[in-house]
Amino acid sequence: MKKIYFLSILCLFWLFSCKNDEAVVEVAQGSFVNFNINEVPYAKLSTYAFFTGDLKNLTPSSKVLPFEPASSLFTDYALKKRFIWMPAGTKATYVAGNKILEFPVGTVLIKNFYYNTIQPGNTTKIIETRLMIKKSSGWIFAEYLWNDAQTEADLVTGTDFMSGSSQNITFKKENGDIVNIDYRIPSQSECLTCHKLGDDPAPIGLKPQNLNNNYNYPGNIKNQLQKLVDEGYLVSYPANIASTVNYKDTSQPLDIRLRSYLDINCAHCHEQEGHCNYRALRLNFSSTTNLANLGVCVTADEPIDPTIQKIIRPGNHLKSVMNFRLDTEDESVRMPLLGRTIVDDKGVLLLQQWIDSFNQPCN
């Protein structure tokens, strides 16, 4: 006798605020991801069914988990909504607090870049969605550009992905300033410049040190690592992890805030096997307890001029190379090399406050 099964889908909608990006996300239960590792990346973002309902709402399907590192990478003031999905029956494993979780084949990391103050009218526009997909051969990149109607995002391939592109946008900053920029869509090589260890593509933010904090999930607040365990996405993690903080949280110590900022914005290049591993700096959070790794009293590989030679000169940000590089839009000397075209006002102010907060004479 033929059996007919009815699947009753109950959608539960919740709202929560993301700590750094002030994003609002709705979570729906009862929808399922479409994923064939031999066929991805798909030509259309919607094909994955990572999101349910109107695509532009970015309402995650069941088992598509939102996450947020303690501090967020600055990308010309773009806001982000981040999610992770893993195939059923697979789990990540803990390596070390300062190392990316070891993810199983089939893992997809989803990062949506958008603005909610596009002028005129303070409208919301999603510009791009970046995927990192782990195949048996390693991680691959998939870049999707959203259409103006915000109904679909198309895979960028061929010459467009090799060369990258730009979109001109005008948006309002938190302080009320109106800014016009050519927002950069990264090329494949630019993705690899930041997202690599040695010659292999690798994620950046999904280190236990960046996720060992609470997140406002639908219905409850929970530690993000514990949420991964509870959802069957992580085997376990230790109780004591030296963790980063939200660098915008002024209740935290100034040095911890700065080290957290540099970790998420700079450490992926300034670390062993990173793009800038030949330089003196080592800016991952676990290394910057050593002031020399931060550049304090260290002569820069490329001094700005005879009067600005130390990477950080304690007590004087105007004589510090790091401040000069973070506080300029000149692409020939600015840092980070990629990911921004304008200055991160809050990041620069944090650096300046930290440099000027102590006076340690350099020999």
Question: Overview of this structure, please?
Answer:
α5 crosses α8 (345-356). A six-stranded antiparallel β-sheet has the order 3-4-5-6-7-8, with no helix packed on it. Strands 1-2 form a two-stranded antiparallel sheet. Strands 9-10 form a two-stranded antiparallel ribbon. The protein has helices spanning 158-163, 188-194, 208-211, 224-230, 254-266, 291-294, 321-326, 345-356; strands at 15-17, 24-26, 65-67, 79-85, 108-118, 123-135, 138-146, 153-155, 165-172, 178-185, 196-197, 200-201, 214-217, 220-223. The protein contains eight helices and 14 strands. It is globular, with a radius of gyration of 21 Å. With 363 residues, it is an alpha+beta fold. It starts with 14 loop residues before the first strand and ends in a 7-residue tail after the last helix. The protein folds into two domains: 15-230, no CATH class; 254-356, no CATH class.
